[in-house]
Amino acid sequence: MADFGSSGKDDIADPSVTRRKRRLSWIWLVPVVAAIAAGGLVLRTWLQAGPTITITFQTAEGLEAGKTQIRYKDVNVGLIESIRLSEDRSHVVTTAQLAKEAASLAQEGTTFWVVRPRLGLSGVSGLSTLLSGAYIGVDAPRKVETGRPKTQFTGLEVPPEVAQDRAGRRFQLRANTLGSLDIGSPVYYRRIPVGQVIGYRLRDDGQEVDIQIFIDAPNERFVTAATRFWNASGFDFSLGANGLKVRTQSLLSLALGGLAFEDIGDEARTVATADADFRVYDSEENARAKPDRWSVKIRMRFDQSVRGLSVGAPVELNGVTMGQVDAIDMDLDRERQRFFAVVSATIYPDRLGSVAQVVRQEYMGDAEHPTGRLLGGLIENGMRAQLRTGNLLTGQLYVALDVFPDAPPATFQMGVPADIPTVPNNLDQLQQQLTSIVNKLEKVPFDKIGADLRTTLSSASRLMTRLDKQVAPEAQAALREAGKSLAAITHMLSSDSGLVSDTERTVQELNRTARSLRALSDYLQAHPEALLRGRTPERLPVGTSSRN
Hints:
The chain is of the alpha/beta class and about 550 residues long. Helix content is about 30%, strand content about 30%. It is built from eleven helices and 25 strands. The chain has a seven-stranded mixed sheet with strand order 5-8-2-3-4-1-9. The protein has a seven-stranded mixed barrel with strand order 10-13-12-11-17-14-18. Strand 23 (about 385-390) and strand 24 (about 395-405) form a beta hairpin. Mean pLDDT is about 80; it is low at about 1-10 and about 540-548.
């Protein structure tokens, strides 16, 4: 057996610890690369990002953070990042991030609104949002970078009718009332639509309405200093010698209302300036009428009813409309203890036509110092104011200035306003005549006449009764006797009676006698000497007797 003890022990080496070097693992490069990539993306996003803006709206209907886009001309230029409620809870505040290439939108003059389906006078808009959802629309000034930078905006509740970069011009109009006009109502020039109403507001004094319109290019050049606008809504009726005329701009203006304009005034045909102020007339007739540069205030007293007379009723002179009624008041006549109507009106001497200037210079003076010579002379010659019926169907009245030669004298003194004497109208005169007739009829003693009539009728009734009982039998007997007499006469005149034959013989003898007289007359005419000598037998006419 071999001895392994000593040799094995000597061959075993002493143990030793060897430390290996640590190496960096490739797995740690992944987060490093991701961090670098994320940093690059953040840097790129930061470099490409545009300005951050805030837009306030009344509500957040249809808006979603991170989804709602901002579009300009249907191009995505931003995104709504957050939506929050304002501190006073009166509106919502949205924060939006614009693209770098759309940074110029963040300036004064830019407007934002929520695009959603809408139905208006100008048509239906926003139907595409039924599938894609609502988005923010943008309208910016025509020139880029013309306004100061701005980051806080107030969104519009309705989209603007006209984009700021649309070719054309805006004009300011003023009217007494808005009428049937609304945003989107068309504007016509020679019955061709050339623009539309884009806005309106009430003036600070509340007396008139400001209307904004937009005229598309190149038609804006037709708006000059001589242009006049009028309300073209509905129908325009006119009844004249040629019959009934009906005029309207278009069927669209009947439903939506509308405006029309033409060059009518005497001003130069120069293009209207930006600050031009145009008035809207109620009708085309009023727009085409010459302007009234001078007015005279008058006042009239009417003791009769003024029912049917309204403010705006015409004041006419020989059929020419000289003005209109301004006010109708009531006053008290303390002496007679009765009320009467006071009608105030305005007349325009310029409406007299070509003679207006002569009348104004020689008879009426100026607007501040009227002489009253013309009115005084007319009133002295019988001119009076009278209420007349202008429409039998509606009963509307108007004031007529006419000459009444039989009118009682009246004194006149020029003042402001000038008092014009009046006369009752024809209906009032007829009413007075009817009242006089009624008063006379009331004086007739109808009761006494009725009593006398009853007495007369009673007497007549008694007379008829007497006639029926006493006179009628006697009359019947007389009629029977008369019948007998007629029968006897008939018998006498019958053919078999002697009276008829005797009458025939008598007629024959009369005929023979007439023939003899005619023959004797002829003979005496031929032999007048026979009256002295007598007739000779040989010359007697044939058929006569020879007896002397």
